[in-house]
């Protein structure tokens, strides 16, 4: 009788503990590699030029979005339309 109880109860207990562990595990699905790059514009080489660059920035206020081309840092801007100047500030994603 005892053997039957062990053979029946132990697998059920193991399954219950495994299920509880799986449900209680909290794994974040968001990672830094999941970010989407957007088109931004820097004033390079002239102050009135608009060179397109890909950046991880947003329009939500926060720290200024900067782009480094390997030698210099540039503040990143956005445009309302293709013919508009690039003078709308972008902010760093946090």
Topology:
Blueprint: H1 2-24, E1 38-42, E2 51-55, E3 57-58, E4 66-68, E5 73-75, E6 77-78, E7 88-89, E8 91-92
Antiparallel strand pairs: 1-2, 3-8, 4-5, 6-7
What does this structure look like?
- With about 90 residues, the protein is of the alpha+beta class.
- The strands form 4 sheets. It has a two-stranded antiparallel ribbon. A two-stranded antiparallel ribbon has the order 3-8. A two-stranded antiparallel ribbon has the order 4-5.
- About 25% of the residues lie in helices and about 25% in strands.
- β4 (about 65-70) and β5 form a beta hairpin.
- The chain starts with a helix and ends with a strand.
- It has a domain at about 40-90.
List key phrases describing it:
two-stranded antiparallel sheet, signal, DUF6520, 94 residues, 8 strands
Short description:
This protein is α+β, with helices and mostly antiparallel strands. It is 24% helix and 26% strand.
State the separation between the terminal residues, measured CA to CA: 62 Å
The mean pLDDT is 81
Q: Number of helix segments? A: 1
**Residues in helices, as a percent range:** 10-25%
Q: Total number of β-strand segments? A: 8
Low-confidence stretches: none
Shape call = rod-shaped
Order of helices and strands: HEEEEEEEE
- Indicate the multimeric state: single chain
User: Strand fraction band?
Assistant: 25-35%
The helix/strand class is alpha+beta
- What's the arrangement of strands in the largest beta sheet? 1-2
Major sheet description? 2 strands, antiparallel
Rg calculated over all Cα atoms: 27 Å
């Amino acid at each position: 009788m005892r053997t039957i109880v062990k053979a029946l109860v132990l697998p059920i207990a193991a399954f219950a503990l495994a299920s509880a562990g799986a449900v209680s595990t909290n794994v974040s699905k968001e990672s830094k590699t999941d970010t989407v790059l957007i088109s931004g514009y820097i004033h390079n080489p002239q102050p009135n030029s608009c060179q397109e660059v890909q950046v991880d920035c947003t329009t939500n206020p926060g720290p200024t979005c900067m782009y480094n081309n390997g030698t210099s840092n540039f503040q990143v801007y956005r445009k309302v339309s293709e013919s508009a100047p690039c003078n709308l500030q972008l902010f760093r994603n946090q």
